[in-house]
């Protein structure tokens, strides 16, 4: 068994949802009638893409549809995704994107949202209400020396997911409280494409995430309603979660699983949580590094396809090999056949707008 030490690469809040009770006290650029008109034009045009607009100095994309939770408008930006409606209560339901949370921190994003709301004529009627917070701890974990049965939890529901015979995810609990421990590198490569995590970690392999997904009912049990509550009480909540609710143990034959020794990885996690106030927040400084990482990711994909192009060419023309430069020339010829200057500009400008508004 591995004795450690274990390296914590990153910790912080990866998902946060919050309801804001705001009242519009000043008519201005945030005009519900204008939003409806723009949204209707998108629908009539059959567009599924958002319309770019700027409100309070912040670039948004207004989507042509409402949300399943009953809000007529959905607006996305780099820092927050807004569900809102003139007659909804709460008037705004805000999800803060993962990248923004790692770049700015939850409390700075909360302040930024309130500043934006004031700029477009809204004032709070009552304090905000947090409804979901996901706490993440990312570890360098080259060796897996435990399995699902080694977790001792107050939850009686658990599941594991495998791919090609290899475990990728352990899930314990459901509903209002969920613990997931999973191969974050595989998740980035196969699902989220959040390749900027590689920059934050300083590596692109052997990273596993321990993530607690905590919803409203549990937050309220710990009297966490507002951002101020979260800042004050999150340490107590996390200590309960990793010391009392669920632990990772080392089986030793004792019939009482709660007497099994705590795994060194979990001991490290518990120590980190106890020091939470002193750990600081790992942040991504601006978009430049993130965009550079994404560019490198696209280059990797294109290079993979280029090899496929070379292979197809060799089969078609009964060649043994095709050099990289020749494959590039062959691919370029195919691209030129499809190139349309006007469509190129329209599509590139569209993608620029999506990047600037966080919808990518």
SS element count, helices: 12
Uncertain runs are 278-286
Helix content: 40-55%
Biggest sheet, open or closed, and with what strands and sense? 11 strands, antiparallel
Shape category:
flat
Q: What is the tally of beta strands?
A: 13
Overall mean confidence score, pLDDT: 88
Q: What is the distance, rounded to the nearest whole angstrom, between the alpha carbons of the first and last residues?
A: 41 Å
What's the gyration radius in Å?
24 Å
Run of helices and strands: EHEEEEEHHEEEEEHHEHHEHHHHH
Sheet/helix structural class: alpha+beta
Q: In what order do the strands lie side by side in the largest sheet?
A: 2-3-4-5-6-1-7-12-11-10-9
Q: Domains counted in the coordinates: how many?
A: 3
Give the arrangement of secondary structure elements.
Elements: E1 7-24, H1 32-44, E2 51-55, E3 58-62, E4 73-76, E5 81-84, E6 92-96, H2 98-104, H3 106-119, E7 122-140, E8 151-153, E9 158-163, E10 166-174, E11 177-183, H4 184-192, H5 196-201, E12 207-215, H6 216-221, H7 227-245, E13 246-248, H8 264-274, H9 276-279, H10 288-316, H11 324-338, H12 341-356
Antiparallel strand pairs: 1-6, 1-7, 2-3, 3-4, 4-5, 5-6, 7-12, 8-13, 9-10, 10-11, 11-12
Helix pairs in contact: 2-3, 7-8, 10-11
Can you tell me about this structure?
This protein is an alpha+beta fold and 360 residues long. 41% of the residues lie in helices and 27% in strands. It has 12 helices and 13 strands. The longest helix has 29 residues, at 288-316. The two termini are 41 Å apart.
